[in-house]
Protein 1
Amino acid sequence: MDEQNLEAIMGLIMNSGNAKSDAMEAIQAAKDGDFELADAKIVSAGESLTLAHQSQTGLLTKEAQGDNMTVTLLTVHSQDHLMTSIAFKDIAVEIIELHRRLSAK
């Protein structure tokens, strides 16, 4: 695997992990009633996912141009990490909204 592909894969893993961590912190902030922090953490999670998507797009673009890479366990892991983090962020948004509604009552 060349250095550029490895950097993109590690970018996927790192930024996806950051997004998931921020989403988890957002849920905790909502549980504590700090919706301003929860909203900020969700924004941060979205920004990390954007960076992860940019890494993924780079890999996809290279493949579309005929520069195929060898798929390794690390590659699969990076894609799995991204998909899981996207789903986790989406669920976190819903959980935060539930906490917001409960706290309004």
Protein 2
Amino acid sequence: MSEYRIALAGNPNTGKSTLFNALTGLNQHTGNWPGKTVSLAEGTFHYKGNDYRLIDLPGTYSLFSNSADEEVARDYIIFEQPDVTIVVVDATSLERNMNLALQVLEMTERVILCINLIDEASKHGIVIDDQKIASKLGIPVVKMSARNGEGITRLLDTLHKMVSGQIITRPYRIEYSEKIENHIQRIEPKIKEIFGDSLPARWLALRLLEGDESLLRVLKQKFARKQPPARVTRAHG
């Protein structure tokens, strides 16, 4: 039996908390993220022989550094590297919600897109081709209505297949202008020299090109902790 950490990301009002409650039931607790005033909801559930720890990330519209909520969600996906990130989107506002999903796909390959509120979409005559979206994005896509319990089992089965290696994702990557792509190609090797494969080099390159000072501070703190003491460096120099 194994335990897997699952991050739950999404815009506000997508039904993310409803899904969190449906999966964890009474096996959950709330608090604050360490050093932050941002609330933390965490819960557990069991499925097909595995234990899962579900972390409900703050609802955000992006994963840049515009707020404490965005920084918490961003840092968890990047530095804690959950086994799977489930991105919850609103079926009635799919285009607007897809911005966050595409950002997550630049950060990690282990993603499931959960299209929630399909009952509301049906009322508005909205038809969603989940297979076509899955083919375009290169990740599993599950349609559901969390409040009605519809699609929960399919989501759990998809999650089980992903953690057991039965599903291999090939996430869609946004291609930017030639100028930006040239900058990325120059920066990526330097990032890999420092962090190896432990962090997504392409995503970091994009954030550095944008001058994300908040991320730079976090990177400096984490990188400083990994450095050997100065006297040890001299002794081997």
